[in-house]
Amino acid sequence: MPTKTTMPSRCPACAHGLVEVEAGIASWCPACRWNLDVYDPALAPWRGTRLVGRWGFRRGLEVDRATHEELLADPAASAAGTSRGEVWLMVFSVVLALIGVAALGYLAWLVVADGPPPGVRLVLAIPAVLVLLLVKPSFGRVPRYGAIAERDAPQLHRLVREVAAAAGTPVPDVICADLNINAGVARLGWRQRSVLVVGMPLWLMLPRPARVSLLAHELGHLANGDPLRVRRTLPARAFGARAVAATGGRNPWRRALHSANSLAEQGSGTVVLLGMLVQGALALVNVAGATAQLLVDSVAMPDSRRAEYRADLVARRVAGTGAFLQSAETVLLADRIWQDLWHQAPRLDSEQLESIAAEARRHLAPQLPLARQLSRRTTDLWSTHPSEDQRMRLIEALPGIGGMLHVDDSRWAAIDAELASWRRAAYHALLGTRDRF
Ligand SMILES: [Zn+2]
Ligand SMILES: [Zn+2]
Predict the structure, then answer these.
(1) What Gene3D superfamilies is this protein classified in (predicted)?
(2) Residue 304 C-alpha to ligand 2 middle, in angstroms?
């Protein structure tokens, strides 16, 4: 069946040819970006309904625009104090903590009360236990595997120390590696130790100066106090998601319908009715949890966005404009580079990963402009990071600088040698993922 298209083939604004990625995706002008910033259900993250998705997409653009303006006006400003959104989340967190304390008190009362028989007390305890599960504090755990000790990698630790000094933050307590195409920083465990996690696949794909930028971005979060900020508001941030997970995750109504059907096939009248009531109640709690999470995230996201941009500003200052842009470009192409490595893995050995990745980066480079523009369509208010395009545009709008930290090749070679076992682990992950595609 021929599809009817009302889209022009040339840009109405500048007459440049339009990009058409695939059917169903609204085309746009790569030259003047006409029609680029439109909500595209095929590309935007799915948020339950189109209405919510579209709102989140537009709101994300607004938040980015406002944050850009604010940061460009004063890029050197230190992290702002507590925002209004954060105050709300802290108040909500305190309320949740109080509810938890009340549930504990109620449980204690049930234990000592001498009125109702034990069976009744047990039933009366259930709601309080459920409430406690939803509001209990969580401190996270320092990963048990992957920690890289200073004696095993003195040069890597030295580099992290230098980046921390340049970023103006204490040195992270633990440096970890894992096998994700990612990196992160957090405060974990009872002692809230700062943990830097570097995904080795991403590390291997990054050009060397871009690795400094990656480290500086992550340590920039520490310098700006972001993990502590998140920690303070965690009960509020986690509450909705916990309710959703506890009641079975996505698609609650479909699940309720499904189990009602299977109950109806086998059970008697009362059992079916009871089962349907329980399932209906679970679905309601699920929807309420998902809505609460959406609302909480809507309040939290402007701050999270600002935190990402601020960490990018630290990366620019420490590693320089060029290194930051290189790291952003590598992130944009990371999945494709990894796919390339995957194809070649059986013919390689682990020592060649970096050079083959560099080769892949070069020959995939022509795809960058489009991938970069497309990243705007795949990001909305609730995305954990602004789009790569937005992040790059902020840094490009500032004067280009060379960065404070330069690491010579002999030091890089030493760091590479220290990470040899991790390179092998990444290589094995690559071979292991061969059957996943
Ligand atoms: Zn145009
Ligand atoms: Zn970040």
Answers:
(1) Metalloproteases ('zincins'), catalytic domain
(2) 9
Structure tokens at 338: 């990894």
Cα of 388 from ligand 2 centre, angstroms: 12
* Residue 10 counted as domain residue: yes
Q: Which stretches of 74-188 are DSSP H helices?
A: 84-112, 118-135, 154-167
Q: Which amino acid is at 109?
A: W
CA 100, 104, 109, 110: dihedral to nearest 10 degrees?
Answer: 100
- Domain of 30 in residue numbering reads as 1-36
- 131 near 285, Cβ under 8 Å? no
Domain membership flag for residue 112? no
Q: Is there a domain that residue 342 lies in?
A: no
Residues 6+ away with beta carbon under 8 Å from 398: 72, 75, 316, 321
Enumerate residues with CB within 5 Å of ligand 2 (an ion): 308, 311
Q: Is residue 3 part of a domain?
A: yes
| Structural domains of the chain, count | 1
